Amino acid sequence: MNKPQVNSLVRAMAPAVLAFLFAQSAFAHPQKGEAVGFLTGFRHPISGLDHVLAMVAVGLWGAQLGSPAIWVLPVAFPMVMAVGGMLGLMGVPLPGIEYGIAFSAILLGAAVMFEVRPPLGAAAALVGFFAIFHGHAHGTELPPGQSALLYSMGFVIATGCLHALGIGIGTVHRWAWGQRLLRVAGGLVVMGGAFFMWKAVA
Amino acid sequence: MRGAAQSRLPLYAFVVFTFVMCALPAEAHLNSTGMGPFYDGLIHFLMSPEDIIPVLALALLAGLRGASYGRRALFTLPVAWLLGGLAGLSAVTAAPHPFIAAAWFLLLGGLLAADAKVSLRVTTALAALLGVYHGYLNGTGMGQFETAGVALLGLVFAVFVLIAVAAAFVVRLRKQWARIAVRVAGSWIAASGLLMLGWAVRTR
Questions:
Q1: The whole model's pTM is what?
Q2: A166 at B interface, C-beta within 8 A
Q3: CB-CB under 8 Å, B19 with A21
Q4: For residue B4, pLDDT beyond 60
Q5: Scanning every residue of chain A, which has its alpha carbon at the shortest distance from the alpha carbon of B8?
Q6: CB contact under 8 A, A78 and B12
Q7: Which residues contact B10 (CB under 8 A, 6 or more apart)?
Q8: In angstroms, what separates the C-alpha of B195 from chain A's closest C-alpha?
Q9: Which of A142-156, B73-87, B111-125 has the lowest mean pLDDT?
């Protein structure tokens, strides 16, 4: 092993040494599934491209519409999605979930592509309607043995982060080239939604 | 030089494994920091998201309403928490009810998201109820320890610090987007409460 390799190994080990210095005590009765619960919840919305497309599109559309839609839509979506998740957890059936999710990507992508500007209430209602399908899918697919609180928090925070990602990308709307770029991004979301609709039908 | 660098490796490895082998003993029910019961209670609060999040939501709500609301919550909540905890120390056992936990998330998160114009009296009542309920639950869990009273003080101190920092942080926010970000956090808390409610129904 030459000197640069040794140095890089030592540098790589330094954080591990520091981490071990602050080792926590072991607990006999931990809250079951806490860490796993948060990670499972956080990973759930970002693990499916159909969900990601729709949630990012909500942020893009909010950024296009400007204030107050830029924050009303990303607040409406997780709230109504949680209602859908609650229904899923309670075992209340909802027909056509996969179609609803794919259709949400198509419609929200089209709204971004054509820069549709409906009244705020109509935009929030549209976003909220489709959020129920996303939430229900997450609620019914929930694995057992997780911490309810941390799963829920991870799930909601990940959704919020996806909206924030959409809003962040949507800030390019202030420039002419950015407006064209957002429309192209909306078109890509429509194509993705169409693909998932085809998969759901096939 | 090369030899000197290589010769340090066993030393680093020795330090790492020494600390790994010196893990603290396992403790049931109350976290052990090794620094005494005061810090055990403090860490117990900081490791309990079901306690932290309602306190944070109340602090943010009080902060949004203004400095006088923040001050009221700052003193009401820890005192109520302490009283509830002292009552819980002498109680047998009490399990946290999942519906009530979800209801706190929904109520405080919803009020925060809506930027509800709650009165000072309502804020005080919410702080008192939250403190008594959560303090009582904490107290029942600690009652079996001789040093539970000191641990409870540490826990109440952590509540005081959290509400002071969070409320003071929000009180000084003037920009619209920053206040909206606080309300978005409230919507996330309320949404988590809805999911917890569904979970509670499912596992009942």
A1: 0.75
A2: no
A3: yes
A4: no
A5: A10
A6: no
A7: none
A8: 5
A9: A142-156
Q: Quick check: is A164 in a domain?
A: yes
Nearest to A197 by CA among A50, A81, A46, A56: A50
* Residue A4 counted as domain residue: no
Q: What is the pLDDT of residues A127-147, one digit of tens each?
A: 889 899 988 888 887 666 667
For B129-141, what is the mean pLDDT?
A: 87
Interchain CB distance below 8 Å, A3 and B2: yes
Q: How many pairs of residues across A and B have Cβ atoms under 8 Å apart?
A: 133
**Average pLDDT estimate for B14-26:** 64
Asked if the structure places residue A27 within a domain, the reply is: no
Residue closest to A186 by CA, chosen among A112, A104, A117: A112
ipTM of model: 0.71
Domain extent, residue A53, equals 38-201
Number of domains composing chain A? 1
Whether A6 sits inside 8 A of B101 (CB atoms) is: no
Domain-embedded: residue A22: no
| CA atoms within 13 A of residue B181's CA, in its CB half-sphere | 10
Reported as type and span, the H/E element at residue B177 is helix B176-203
Sequential DSSP letters for A86-111 = HHHHHT---TTHHHHHHHHHHHHHHH
Cα B139 from Cα A138, distance rounded (Å): 36
Residue B139: alpha-carbon gap to chain centroid: 14
Contact between B5 and A78 using a beta-carbon 8 Å cutoff: no
